[in-house]
Amino acid sequence: MQDADDRSAMTAAHHTRTSLLGQMASWGIETRTVDHEPLFTVEQSTRVHREVSGSHTKNLFLKDKKGTLLLITADHATRVNLKNLHKKLGCGRLSFANAELMQTFLGVTPGSVTALAVINDVDRAVGFVLDKNLMQADIINAHPLENTATTSIARDDLVRFVEKTGHEVTVVDLESDLVDSVQGAL
């Protein structure tokens, strides 16, 4: 992973929802997308959970003091111990990365963070961590780079998608050894 402080601003255009879904289709990855009102938190998305089957996600875009960037994609119900997560991942203590880094590296804004945003990280500067709980789901739901829609994708296709973008998928049991937890972030 590249240090966030050493990276200059991106000059290439980021993918949009349309180009993302087109790229996924060209890779033979089937998806289904449902439009809805903008969602900013897991709590706001409960209606969508009832209408769209599969496991719903929450996403945390994090940074350690050395500049290591991580995108954590977890089941919406998983309790993530942010205080101790760095020990599991072998990095420095983690905190939320700011909106500027989010836009620069993932091409999304707060409330639209999604596993699918790794497509915009062309330099592979962001590490990708997938919740072990999501590996139990057949279908995983994520925003297609905007929080006004939910895209359903098969679990194995999500893993294949992330790998096609040049990122490694690190599966971690995020719930073990809980002390403090982070809930509600998308």
Kindly report how far apart the N and C termini lie: 23 Å
Give the averaged pLDDT, no decimals: 87
**Sheet with the most strands, sense and barrel status:** 8 strands, mixed
CATH topology tier name? YbaK protein
The sequence of SSEs as H and E is: HEHEEHEHEEEHE
User: Can you identify the CATH class?
Assistant: Alpha Beta
Number of helices: 5
CATH superfamily: YbaK/aminoacyl-tRNA synthetase-associated domain
Overall shape: globular
Number of strands: 8
In quaternary terms, these chains amount to single chain
The helix content, as a percent range, equals 10-25%
What is the domain total for the residues?
A: 1
Q: Radius of gyration, rounded? A: 15 Å
**Helix-strand makeup class:** alpha/beta
The CATH architecture classification is: Alpha-Beta Complex
Report the sheet-strand fraction. 15-25%
Low-confidence stretches: 1-11, 178-186
Summarize the structure.
This protein has five helices and eight strands, in the order αβαββαβαβββαβ.
Set out the fold topology.
Elements: H1 17-26, E1 31-35, H2 46-51, E2 55-64, E3 69-75, H3 82-89, E4 94-96, H4 99-106, E5 126-131, E6 139-142, E7 149-154, H5 155-164, E8 169-172
Parallel strand pairs: 2-6, 3-5, 5-8
Antiparallel strand pairs: 1-7, 2-3, 2-4, 6-7
What does the model show?
There is one protein chain. By secondary structure, the chain is of the alpha/beta class. The chain has a single domain, classed as YbaK/aminoacyl-tRNA synthetase-associated domain (YbaK protein, Alpha-Beta Complex), CATH 3.90.960.10. It is about 25% helix and about 25% strand. It is built from 5 helices and 8 strands, in the order αβαββαβαβββαβ. The chain has helices at about 15-25, 45-50, 80-90, 100-105, 155-165, and strands spanning about 30-35, 55-65, 70-75, 95, 125-130, 140, 150-155, 170. Strands 1, 2, 3, 4, 5, 6, 7 and 8 form an 8-stranded mixed sheet that branches. β6 and β7 (about 150-155) form a beta hairpin. The chain is globular and about 35 Å long. Mean pLDDT is about 85; it is low at about 1-10 and about 180-185.
